[in-house]
Amino acid sequence: MNTGAFRQLRWPAAAAGLDALGRLRHVVAGALRTGRPLAVWREPGASTPRLLVARSLEATYTGLSPALDAQAPAGFAFFPFRDSDQNPALFLPADVVYDASQPEIVGVSAAARDLVPALTAWLSAALVEELSWHRSTQPAPHAATESEYTQLVQTGVEAIETQEVVKVVTSRAARRPLPADFDPLVAFAELDRKYPQAFVSLVSVPGVGTWLGATPEILAEVTADGTFRTMALAATQPLTANVTPRTAIWRQKEIEEQALVARYIVSCFKQLRLREYHETGPRTVIAGQLLHLRTDFEVNLQHVPFPSLGTDMLRLLHPTSAVGGMPKVAAMHFIQKHEGYDRAYYSGFLGPVNVAAPGIARLYVNLRCLQVRADEAILYAGTGLTVDSDPEREWQETQMKLQTIAAVL
Ligand SMILES: C=C(O[C@H]1C=CC=C(C(=O)O)[C@@H]1O)C(=O)O
Predict the structure, then answer these.
(1) Is the CB–ligand 1 distance for residue 402 below 6 Å?
(2) Relative to the CA of 261, which ligand 1 atom is closest?
(3) Averaged pLDDT for residues 21-47
(4) How far is the CA of 39 from the centre of ligand 1 (A)?
(5) For residue 178, which of 346, 370, 395, 29 has the smallest C-alpha distance?
């Protein structure tokens, strides 16, 4: 954790019996009790989660997508599919930070210095059993029936046939009852265990709600050694005993669907006049119980004259054609007109910027996610359509995708 920029509070002797995750839970409880936004996440391949608490809701509103450079503020981005008053773009400033791999300290930013007395007292306070998670003030979205969804796919295929769009990604919400004793932090731990290669997240913001997810898709990453990465992830089939990444065979429809996403990324590089990028793939990758096709793109930022490449690419990429479609504006218009529900933060993006260290940012597409409501969960999934899409198969594909996150219910 980028603790250099933070005042470090040590846990008091009273907390000696609490393990790293117990401490994380206690800081989460304090944030929820005082109405503060928070994010807990575990990066792919990492063994421990991190937590960030913003000092206030007001401090999280942002107009622009985050800058991916070492001088930019540290925080956690939580962006909707489409920015609106109901689903504002948020950037939670890194005011209180906790890294479960360094469980002896809690960091507090200079901007949140006035929180230090209350936080110090809280670290010695008795544990709270029940956490009261932030709720959305928006109504639950409409959950499409099978016939509504297959009709939507049919309309999408017709829009491709009439050349209104080249590709569009349709999606739906599904409502599931919450188990009586559902605990988002326990569910987070289960996602962490089940999906070691996913970006696992739990974000809770007053009025916006509580979102849990385990996404396989990087939107934009900038690493300490000056590398920019993104990926074209699309096409889906179940991972079974007989079909593995080595033996998977893809139909023409799926190859085309993924190639369009890759082409879209290349078009973004072209808009920025960047030619020096490495492209690897497509290859078959595992995401939970599914297989996808993935092409990786990498740029060495030390070798190109584009200091703001990460920031510029992020602004061009979102929403990628893996969640919107192509051409972007026509696909967004189709979705707005026909999908019939509010995606909110599903297929938006999320992740830390300059939290681990200045210059390290990891933003992911918010897929395989759910929204926790008072007594139900809203799950989300979508499918990329091409002219050859079969409505019934696309419905089945959304069912499979919902399974990734439904596993914690
Ligand atoms: C839109 C989703 O997945 C995207 C990412 C991988 C494969 C996809 C597909 O096969 O359609 C989607 O483009 C989702 O999981 O809701």
Answers:
(1) no
(2) 13
(3) 97
(4) 24
(5) 370
pTM of the model: 0.97
Measuring from atom 5 of ligand 1, which residue has the nearest CA? 234
Under the banding of pLDDT at 50, 70 and 90, the label for residue 94 is very high
Give the up-direction half-sphere exposure of residue 291: CA atoms within 13 A in the CB hemisphere: 19
- Residue 391 C-alpha to ligand 1 middle, in angstroms? 15
Q: 323 in helix, strand or coil?
A: coil
Does the 146-177+213-406 domain belong in CATH 3.60.120.10? yes
The answer to whether the complex's ipTM is over 0.85 is yes
Instruction: List the chain domain ranges.
Output: 3-124, 146-177+213-406
Q: Kindly state the greatest CA–CA separation across the chain.
A: 69
Question: How far apart (Å, rounded) are the C-alpha atoms in residues 356 and 286?
Answer: 26
Residue nearest to atom 13 of ligand 1 (CA): 322
Closest to 345 measured CA to CA, from 325, 321, 313, 372: 372
Q: Is the CB of 291 under 6 A from ligand 1?
A: no
**Does residue 1 register a pLDDT over 80?**
no
Q: State in Å: Cα 384 to ligand 1 middle.
A: 6
Among 233, 253, 317, 385, say which to mutate for ligand 1: greatest number of ligand atoms within 8 Å of CB: 233
Nearest CA owner, ligand 1 atom 1: 382
**335 in Cβ contact with 168 (< 8 Å):** yes
Q: Closest by alpha carbon to 282, among 271, 291, 273, 270?
A: 291
Average pLDDT over residues 276-296: 97
CB distance 381 to ligand 1 below 6 Å:
yes
Task: Note the pLDDT tens digit of each residue in 105-157.
Answer: 999 999 999 999 999 999 999 998 889 999 999 999 999 999 999 999 999 99
Whether residue 282 has a cis bond before it, omega within 30° of 0: yes
Helices 252-271 + 309-317 axis angle, to 10:
130
Please write the tens of the pLDDT for every residue from 359-403.
999 999 999 999 999 999 999 999 999 899 999 999 999 999 999
